[in-house]
Amino acid sequence: MSPPERKWLLVEGQYDLYAVVQLMAQHIAWGNRRQDWPVTIKVSGSVSELLEPAYLSGQLKSREVEILGIMVDANQSFDQRWAGIREQCRVSFPDVPDHLPPEGLIVQNNQGKRLGVWIMPDNVSHGMLETFLRFLVPDAQEPIWIRAQKAVEEAIAAGAGCRKVHLDKANIHTWLAWQDPPGEDFGNALVQAILNSHSPNAVSFVKWFRGLYEI
């Protein structure tokens, strides 16, 4: 089994980092200090930086990394996003399939390295982290979720500048603003069970994460 310092997950931003940490902390032992985390999570800054050929190939070939996970948003271009990752990873992992498995990718190469890919929200759909988190809204909160969506629609109709591509972000933040306490970030919302860390969508991600990192 690979030691913790040789297990890496690449994510786009800090929101992604804290959401993963707090979600996984509801399912496995996760230290309070970074040096105690079972997986090192590295923030790239943006998906374009993360998917730079030199950056990704360097991570794939690094002797310091034995297990590498990649988590990015599909946004509005799932097929393009997957194609970019697939072609870059095939240099070191020739068995990467043409299509991303809906349960997330986990492959191993001849050198014994492991690679995992999860494209938010569900390895199939367009969307992002916020789309994934929408499916962690508790069932009892569905009436409030519907009201939050309508409030966003009405605000846009009244002239709010929210673009369609950011609708999922606006919806989840509006819904969080109506919780107790209001306006929690994603990580705290998971810690305080405002978001359901045991929903089917959450469990699917957790299963991929644990399988990849052999936890």
What is the structure about, briefly put?
By secondary structure, the protein is α/β, with parallel strands linked by helices. It has helices at 14-25, 47-50, 53-61, 78-89, 129-134, 142-157, 167-177, 186-191, 200-213, and strands at 7-11, 40-43, 67-73, 105-108, 114-120. The protein folds into two domains: 4-127 and 198-213, 3-Layer(aba) Sandwich (Rossmann fold), CATH 3.40.50; 130-191, no CATH class.
What does the model show?
- The chain is α/β, with parallel strands linked by helices and 215 residues long.
- The protein has two domains: 4-127 and 198-213, Rossmann fold (3-Layer(aba) Sandwich), CATH 3.40.50; 130-191, no CATH class.
- It has helices at residues 14-25, 47-50, 53-61, 78-89, 129-134, 142-157, 167-177, 186-191, 200-213, and strands at 7-11, 40-43, 67-73, 105-108, 114-120.
- Helix 6 (142-157) crosses helix 7.
- The mean pLDDT is 94.
